[in-house]
Amino acid sequence: MKLSRKNGLRASAIGALVVSGALVLSACGSDNNSEPAKAGGDKTSAAASNIKCDGAKGQLLAAGSSAQKGAMDLWVKNFQAACAGVEINYQGIGSGGGITKFNQGQVALAGSDSALKEEEVAESKKVCAGGTGVNLPMVGGPIAIGYKLEGVDNLILDAPTLAKIFDNKITKWNDEAITKLNPGAKLPDSTIQAFHRSDESGTTQNLGKYFSVAAPADWKYDPKAKSWPAQKGQAASGSSGVASAVKDTEGSIGYFELSFANANKISTVSLNTGASAPVAATSENASKAIAAAKVKGTGNDVALSLDYGTKAEGAYPLILVTYEIACDKGNKAETLPTLKAFLNYTVSDEGQKILSDAGYAPLPAEIAAKVRAIVPTLS
């Protein structure tokens, strides 16, 4: 299956703020045949030839974010092609599941769409002997609001209206709030079928953070919640499950990473952010919001603070950044060389470039530089 469109963004789009080789969020579920297509193609051999194995050997277990599963698949394919005898097993089970496995010592690496909470950091110290779990941003991109509504190709919504839809306070497609935002659109008098994640998810958490900032009067739930906090709506497992449900259900709406919308040919909502024009869910527009990210972590932790409330022209504020979570100290000796070599590759220019053609949002150059400096110090 091929992506239906490419939203490629070159680093020159935001100058020195972004990495020359774009980091990419290629969202992909772990158990659904509607996964986004893999990027890279015949570039694999060339990319693999430049990888430094640096003593990598044996098996490395990793798990977590389904949003980065597609990116992981590409990286793993290239890394294993370059490093004989190495097996990297990444399970896209969701951010919450990945963090749980990491803090139980079952995996050496976890993927998460949100930074570790304080209690999760404290828990990580039990498995990171003499150290702690740290957040290393690796992949970024937009969270798309996908919908299926016959005859409506360009739907515009704002944060308060979306919050009410997902909280079951707006239940009809021809509700006044929606019609005001879409004059001239043929909106039916039918029930909105809103889908959310059934599993713990960093994507859900980032959506909640966006609502809490952009629509605080209409979203009263804990913005840190990874489990769906509202009482109603329909649930599906993983981003792949939500995308499949939206694709198959007339009158539906749901949230998932942009590549799911592209792969499944699902229409996406443009956001009325208060800028002069509605903002579409594209990698270019998401990167304008990601460029405003600030580092809130200290030391070897590169947790980011995202600006979900930006009204900058062309900035799509409903974004996420996916982290790799690893021990800064106390890694198992048998997996440490493979862990470091693999992360050195994923954050390298080469690791980024193989994903840039898929068209996802780059991270600020200064953030990538911080991660590149930290990975070799893991011990």
UniProtKB/TrEMBL annotation:
Keywords: Phosphate transport, Signal, Transport
GO cellular-component term (any): ATP-binding cassette (ABC) transporter complex
Swiss-Prot/TrEMBL GO biological process terms: phosphate ion transmembrane transport
Signal peptide: 1-27
UniProt keyword Coiled coil, yes or no: no
Alphabetical list of PROSITE patterns matching this protein: PROKAR_LIPOPROTEIN (PS51257)
Transmembrane segments: none
InterPro entries: ABC_phos-bd_PstS, PBP_domain, Phosphate-bind_PstS
Residue ranges of coiled coil: none
SUPFAM superfamilies, per the entry: Periplasmic binding protein-like II
Residue span, PBP domain: 56-350
Residue sites binding phosphate per the record: S65, S66, A67, S95, D113, S201, G202, T203
MF terms (GO), sorted A to Z: phosphate ion binding
Record-stated family: Belongs to the PstS family.
Name used for this protein in its record: Phosphate-binding protein
Organism listed in the record: Streptomyces termitum
